[in-house]
């Protein structure tokens, strides 16, 4: 095998140091949450997804290279009272039977300073994918990382609850709040 000349070796080391892939982290589901809220009939209805999974890659030295994919099982949504959950999962809203998952794909982080970023992601619900942008915090310390943020979307953009009397009784804006805790894999 031919050896690299000293200048080429240094260039190769610099290129691989700056292009190394972000590391995989394991999401701690017990310490993480995905919540939603929507105003309906004059009050705020809240819920939590209980069954979901995902992949997270974080580069503490270059957090803007971090990526995440989260796949939520729609049927795991829990709201109070139970009748609200049933309606939310039904064909007029999330339609869990025909669309069993919601997918969130973090595409980019734009640094704002101090561990704050603008997250750019794709959200897929009911077979429709739309971009979302929102503020997010990313903190890493040793082998632990935490991503927190929230975004709002217009449910009509995804065909959620767009017909019938409920469409007028439930506000169109849905807010999702995410807190992911992770450890280096």
Count all strands and give the number.
Answer: 11
Order of helices and strands: HEEEEEEHEEEEHE
Low-confidence stretches: 1-19
Strand order within the widest beta sheet: 1-4-5-7-8-9-10-11
Query: What helical percentage do the residues reach?
Result: 10-25%
Taking the sheet with the most strands, its summary is: 8 strands, antiparallel, barrel
Beta fraction: over 45%
Span between termini: 34 Å
* Envelope shape: elongated
What is the rounded Rg? 20 Å
> What structural class results from the helix and strand content?
mainly beta
Give the overall pLDDT as a whole number: 89
Helical run tally: 3
Descriptive overview:
This protein is mainly beta. It has 3 helices and 11 strands. The chain has helices at 6-19, 82-89, 165-169, and strands at residues 23-27, 33-40, 43-49, 52-58, 67-73, 77-79, 101-113, 116-125, 128-141, 144-154, 170-184. The chain has an 8-stranded antiparallel barrel. The chain is elongated and about 50 Å long. Residues 1-19 have low confidence and may be disordered.
Question: Which helices and strands occur, and which strands form pairs?
Answer:
Blueprint lengths: L5 H14 L3 E5 L5 E8 L2 E7 L2 E7 L8 E7 L3 E3 L2 H8 L11 E13 L2 E10 L2 E14 L2 E11 L10 H5 E15 L1
Antiparallel strand pairs: 1-4, 1-11, 2-3, 2-11, 3-6, 4-5, 5-7, 7-8, 8-9, 9-10, 10-11
List keywords for this structure.
single chain, about 180 residues, mainly beta, about 15% helix, elongated
